[in-house]
Task: structure prediction
Amino acid sequence: MSLNIKPSADRVVVQAAAAETKTASGIYVPETAQEKPQKGTVVAVGPGKYADLSGTLIPMSVKVGDEILYGKYAGTEVTVDGKEYLIMRESDIYAVFN
Result:
């Protein structure tokens, strides 16, 4: 997937996973009751952040294609080419799936 934006510093662009439409027991959840997803796939990564004291570049620990968990209210929602994405700082990422 080619994205036309490049995040700056320690930010990542994430495509959120689809919200669950059915419970484990098979009950369909209406759109108004669906929870905001907290899982997604990284589609673009910034270069990293410069350390305050030394000025050296601290590289990012996530890469394009990583599946991640993030906070419920993390990031800023943006629309690019008709698709919705989240832009968030690397520190908003809680975990990376192996």
The two ends are 20 Å apart (CA to CA).
